[in-house]
Amino acid sequence: MSSDAQPLDDDLAPGADTREVAFTAVGVKKHYPGVKALDGVDLEGYAGSVLGVCGANGAGKSTFAKLLAGVDTLTDGEITIAGYPHPVRNAAEAEQAGVLMMHQEPLIIDDFTVGENVWLYKLREGRDIRPWAQKVDTNNAETREVLANVGLGHLSTRQLARDLGPGQRQMLSLSRAAVTNHKIMILDETTASTSEEHFNDILDLVEREKKAGTSIIFVSHRLNEVFAMCDRIAVLRNGKLVKTLDAAETDADEITSLMIGQALKALARPTPVSADPDQVPVLSVTDLHGGTADGVSFDVHPGEILGLYGLVGSGRSSVARTVTGQRPAVSGSIKLHGQEVDLPTPTAAVQKKIAYLTEDRRLEGFVKDFDNGQNMSLVALPTMAKAGVVDAAAEKKRVRELIGEYQVKGGTKTYTRTLSGGNQQKVVVAKWLETDPEFVVLDEPTKGIDVGARANIYEIIHAVAARGKGVLVVSSEAEELLSLCHRILVMRNGKIVAEFDPDQADTDDLIRTALTHQD
């Protein structure tokens, strides 16, 4: 990494800003047909400092990040990088100016090894295929040290990247900061796929970058992470810059109010469920083995929201995928309303009225080439058909109702892939709940969405439980489960190691148990 940081001038006039400007955005606008994604934003970033960029879904956060990185082109205005002779106009110029962008969806080549992915940008230069040039050693001590610095020191540099989980893929992408020359680093929702145990690795990475004089832009919905990492916070709303504040002089309530234009009402705890010992559980799992799940047993009662917490590799996602037919069980039993069910495929689970919300909505949650109407009705089409023929009028009417019920921005003909993360998630939730499932599994249901959309999702989950359905919420966010669930199970090494009552536990209890519990 590199920096052009210069010593500060002690002779500047009192009150003058002594921070070295790394980039300047003036009058930045980005318009799409019918949408003003950014509308006249003025913003500066400073060397050795972290700028948080916050806003509700569709506020323009990621658009600003893409413009700064040259990934997208401005409609009006300009962005200048200190030391670069003219405003950046494309990604190549931004890279030459020293901008490194880390995306929410990490750039990982599945057929490359872990080591090759660390050095991907160096390999891209082609130096390793020139016979007179020294080849990059992707299995040397430096590579292993780079991986250790982002919490991946246990990985072999020679294993293929396709075997890594979402959090590991993101950390592997972030490892490239140590082997890439840059003076501005953009983290665009890069913590959305990582779990809490990796956040300290990211903090350490950011601290190293700050000491090197790098200007860091952190785009995130997770306000606790924003306050832990950032020196300043810029709030966008409807494409405009509302305010830029020093992180030490504000709090989450003020930032939230600036983001959505009003104070966000606190979400009430879920209504307690009946403790009738004779009540038949909606779902009963006994000695389940599948994936990394190793002898897991639990019940979910009617109207209950059960949380499943664990770190990467704990087995929580294996449980979610096995009880929904995404992954066949090796052994054990699954009972729905007291009747044992066989779930060899996702189709079998759907037929039994078991719904699964994937943690990766962009890859598995919706069809990218479908519009909102097609995606929302996709699973429930059989209920809208007679003799195998879909009633188009009924489908269109119901989809319009769903868009209103779930407050989805965009019409029935809007492509789901063009929506913000929160609105995409609402489409996916609507799609599955339209099947009227008896049991719902939500794997990381609020990953990468803002506080407003998050509250909407929570209200939907509460409403499902209030109808007597069973709900399992899998999350790497301890705080989320404590506020949302009736009970929380903690997993470690494929086993359930503890159970908590959210009214008598805190985040520290869950994290410590997941990290240090002795089997």
Describe this structure in words.
With about 525 residues, the chain is an alpha/beta fold. Helices cover about 30% and strands about 25% of the residues. It has a 6-stranded mixed beta sheet, sandwiched between helices. Strands 15-18-19-12-20-21 form a 6-stranded mixed beta sheet, sandwiched between helices. A 4-stranded antiparallel beta sheet has the order 11-10-13-14. Strand 8 and strand 9 (about 240-245) form a beta hairpin. Helix 15 runs parallel beside helix 16. The longest helix has 16 residues, at about 195-210. It is globular and about 70 Å long. This is Sugar ABC transporter ATP-binding protein. Keywords: ATP-binding, Nucleotide-binding, Repeat, Transport.
Outline the fold blueprint.
Blueprint: E1 21-32, E2 35-46, E3 50-54, H1 61-68, E4 76-81, H2 91-96, E5 99-102, H3 114-118, H4 120-124, H5 141-148, H6 166-174, E6 184-188, H7 196-211, E7 215-219, H8 223-229, E8 232-237, E9 240-246, H9 252-260, E10 283-290, E11 293-300, E12 305-310, H10 316-322, E13 331-336, E14 339-340, H11 346-351, E15 354-357, H12 361-365, H13 372-377, E16 385-386, E17 389-390, H14 392-405, H15 421-433, E18 439-443, H16 451-466, E19 470-475, H17 478-484, E20 487-492, E21 495-500, H18 507-516
Parallel strand pairs: 3-7, 3-8, 5-6, 6-7, 12-19, 12-20, 15-18, 18-19
Antiparallel strand pairs: 1-2, 1-4, 8-9, 10-11, 10-13, 13-14, 16-17, 20-21
Helix pairs in contact: 15-16
